[in-house]
Amino acid sequence: MLNDREKILTALGEKSMKIFDIMKRANIGNQEVCQSLLLKMRDEGSIKFDIKKGVWSLS
User: Fold this and answer.
1) What sections of 1-59 are H helices per DSSP?
2) What is the C-alpha to C-alpha distance for residues 24 and 44, in angstroms, rounded to an integer?
3) pLDDT one-digit tens code per residue, 7-31
4) Do 45 and 39 contact (CB within 8 A), yes or no?
5) 20 to 30 Å CA-CA from 50: which of 4, 8, 39, 43?
6) What is the pTM of this model?
């Protein structure tokens, strides 16, 4: 069974996405939890955020 972190990485492997699309793909119901996890993963260097487009993607 995949954890939330792995689900996010799998979803972003296909294409860059906005947070609501990531939540749908990874089946995460709470936006705050998802955003917190995305920020942690960004700090670790796993993913990046494009401020101009407002999308998350793999590094």
Assistant:
1) 4-14, 19-26, 31-44
2) 23
3) 999 999 989 999 999 999 988 899 9
4) no
5) 4
6) 0.87
